[in-house]
Write a structure and sequence with these properties.
This is NADPH-dependent FMN reductase. Belongs to the SsuE family. InterPro entries: Flavoprotein-like_sf, FMN_Rdtase-like_dom, NAD(P)H-dep_FMN_reductase, NADPH-dep_FMN_reduc_SsuE. Keywords: Flavoprotein, FMN, Oxidoreductase. By secondary structure, the protein is an alpha/beta fold. Helix content is about 35%, strand content about 25%. Strands 1, 2, 3, 4, 5, 6 and 7 form a seven-stranded mixed β-sheet that branches. A two-stranded antiparallel ribbon has the order 8-9. The radius of gyration is 15 Å and the shape is globular.
C-alpha cells in the first residue's frame, strides 16, 4: 500500500503537520512500502502559485500522489477554510487525481468552531478530485497539542491519537498509535 501525506501548513513547526506525521507513523509497515510526506511549503513558490506542473519538484510531488493508494491531507483551518498553500497544490492535481484512492482529511484550528470546515470546505474539493472513499475526518484544537520547545515540534494529545486511530482503523486492524510510533515521530525534525 502506497501512502502519501500532504502537509498543507505554511508554517513550521505545525500542529497539522504533527497530526499528519502521527498518522503516517501509525500506518508505516516495517517490511512494507514506506510512506511519503509532501510538505507543500517546501515546494518552489513561484511555480506552485503559477500552477506550473512542469517544475521538477512539483511534478515529482504530483507523481507521488498519482501513485498513492492512500492520501492523507492535513491543513490548519484559517477563517473556516483550509490553507491557501494546500489549495494551490490541490489545484495542480488532475480533475480525477484522487480517483480510486482512500483519503483522510486532517485539520487543526484554534477552536471547535472550525471543525465543520473540513466537511464543508475540504471534503467537497476532495470529492471533486474523484475521492469516493473518504474516511472520517480528524480535527484537533490547538490546545490538544503539547509544544516540545527543545525539539521544535508539537505532540498530539492521547485523545487526538485515539480519534486518529479510529479514523484510520479501516486501513489496518488493529490500529492505535503506539509509543514506538511517537518515538519515530520525534526523530523527524519539523524544520
Amino acid at each position: 500500500m502506497n501512502i502519501v501525506g500532504i502537509a498543507g501548513s505554511p508554517t513550521s513547526p505545525s500542529r497539522s503537520t504533527a497530526l499528519l506525521r502521527a498518522a503516517l507513523a501509525s500506518l508505516a509497515r516495517p517490511q512494507g512500502p514506506g510512506t511519503i510526506e509532501i510538505e507543500v511549503r517546501l515546494l518552489p513558490a513561484v511555480p506552485l502559485l503559477a500552477a506550473d506542473a512542469r517544475d521538477p519538484l512539483i511534478a515529482q510531488a504530483l507523481a507521488q500522489v498519482a501513485a498513492a493508494d492512500v492520501v492523507l491531507v492535513a491543513t490548519p483551518i484559517y477563517k473556516a477554510a483550509y490553507s491557501g498553500a494546500l489549495k494551490a497544490f490541490l489545484d495542480l492535481l488532475p480533475q480525477d487525481g484522487l480517483r480510486g484512492k482512500t483519503v483522510l482529511a486532517l485539520g487543526t484550528g484554534g477552536s471547535i468552531g472550525h471543525l465543520l470546515a473540513l466537511d464543508y470546505a475540504l471534503k467537497p474539493v476532495l470529492s471533486a478530485l474523484g475521492a469516493r472513499h473518504v474516511l472520517d475526518v480528524v480535527y484537533a484544537e490547538d490546545t490538544q497539542f503539547e509544544r516540545d520547545h527543545a525539539l521544535q515540534r508539537h505532540i498530539p494529545s492521547e485523545a487526538v491519537l485515539d480519534r486518529l486511530g479510529r479514523a484510520l482503523a479501516p486501513l489496518q486492524p488493529p490500529l492505535r498509535v503506539q509509543p514506538a510510533a511517537l518515538a519515530a515521530l520525534a526523530a523527524v525534525p519539523q524544520h
